[in-house]
TrEMBL record:
Swiss-Prot/TrEMBL keywords: Protease inhibitor, Secreted, Serine protease inhibitor, Signal
InterPro entries linked: Antistasin-like (IPR004094)
Major location category of this protein: secreted
A Pfam cross-reference name: Antistasin
Name of the protein this chain belongs to: Antistasin-like factor A
TM helices/strands, residue ranges: none
Entry similarity comment: Belongs to the protease inhibitor I15 (antistasin) family.
Domain (Antistasin-like): residue spans on this chain: 55-79, 111-135
GO cellular component annotations of the record: extracellular region
Organism: Hirudo verbana
GO molecular function: serine-type endopeptidase inhibitor activity
Signal sequence interval, chain numbering: 1-16
């Protein structure tokens, strides 16, 4: 079985025999639908699957959208996280108002273009993941003043 893995803009084909992709590492690249979980070969299997051991019955009032976490092969009273979607893959699109970060493969809020007359030596301040028209540190010049000096 082969998987297509995106790293920045390079595509690498890796097989499940690759030692880097053993066990849990392989599941980092697999998104399974609700009611299934990533198995040891990286394929989605029904969840909860028949346990190899006797598991205690879980008395839990949580309503988990993505199912329960598993510890030592048995479900526990904790919710699974939302599956990771890598937007560098062609079949995953970011929602409106978000864009794909080419370094992490995650959808991030799309930042508005800022028009700013400050020249900041250490860059702009970042608020909610987007730059604003304020310097990171207090060492700035107005671009209009700088152009008069020339």
């Amino acid at each position: 079985m082969k998987f297509l893995i995106a790293v920045l803009y390079c595509f690498v084909v890796a097989s499940s025999e690759d030692p880097f992709l053993e066990g849990a590492n392989l599941c980092k690249f697999v998104e399974c639908p609700v009611g299934t979980a990533c198995g040891p070969t990286g394929e989605c299997v029904p969840f909860p699957s028949e346990p190899e051991q006797d598991c205690p019955r879980v008395m839990c009032t949580l309503a988990c959208e993505f199912g329960f976490k598993v510890k030592n092969g048995c479900p526990i009273c904790a919710c699974r996280r939302k599956p990771f979607k890598n937007c560098l893959f062609a079949d995953v699109r970011c929602p409106v108002g978000e864009e794909c970060d080419p370094f992490s493969g995650l959808c991030v809020p799309k930042c508005p273009t800022i028009r700013c007359m400050l020249a900041c030596e250490h860059g702009f301040k970042i608020v909610n993941g987007c730059p604003i028209c304020a310097c990171e540190r207090e060492s700035f010049k107005f671009l209009a003043e700088e152009s008069k000096e020339v």
